[in-house]
Amino acid sequence: MAPAARSEQAVAGEFAFTWDDFRTLAALVRAESGIVLSDAKANLVYSRLSKRVRARGLSSFGDYCGLVERDAAERQALVAAMTTNVTRFFREPHHFDHLRDEVLPRLAERARRGQRVRLWSSACSSGEEPYSIALALLAAMPDAGAHDVLILASDLDPNMVAAGKAGLYPAARLADIPKTLQGRHIEDHGAHFRLGEAARALVRFRPLNLLKDWPMRGPFDAIFCRNVMIYFDQPTQDAIWARFAALLPPGAPLYIGHSERIASRDFALAAQTVYRRQA
Q1: Could you tell me the CA-to-CA distances from 56 to 41, 63, 121 in Å, in that order?
Q2: pTM passes above 0.70
Q3: Which of 194, 215, 226, 246 could form a disulfide with 187 if both were Cys (CB 3.0 to 4.6 A apart)?
């Protein structure tokens, strides 16, 4: 099927939104974040961005395209709007079983010998993933805070980073945390709960775009990058896998999403969606 004419309306709605507008925005999103938006995503783009058009007092998506091309802050808002933040505590629990059984005992021994331990949640969303890592770590090593142990939590969306730093979540999400890992690490705030000080102290939240410069030099003892690569094309995926490999010592695990695969000589499959850095 031939592509729609650029001047045709992509979606009918309150604001004029042509295919030209869609492809301009898709190109900006891809350049800023690596996220690939096919034509099938036109309705999604309209739905998520129409509130930005309205909030900025604009009358069309053509006007919005002009705004994001000259306004860096609005480009950041554009990318944040197009980012899908689906997460929960202990999502894909087999990863945390592997972390508990195969990784943390060794890291706890190293930390108690005075060695540095670093883990990275590279697309942390609103913080559930790095706090799940922190709770698992505290179960294996209750005195982790007294040693050189840290979890880096990074995300493209600064709003998600701020939510993670706050560490405050609706009470209904507490059900996702195993009762054996709650105890003194959960603070009751009525309709919400907050991660306790011991868990929060282990995590450092930072905004980070995986496509751009990474200020940290590693090495990391484990990296989580789950359900992110599905939004990137293959060359972008390959480049990021290679950058992860450079930050992982041989044998260290990389945890990826259930629908993702790594085709790289840098990694070998170790368990279900768990890869180990090759020597």
Answers
A1: 23, 10, 33
A2: yes
A3: 194
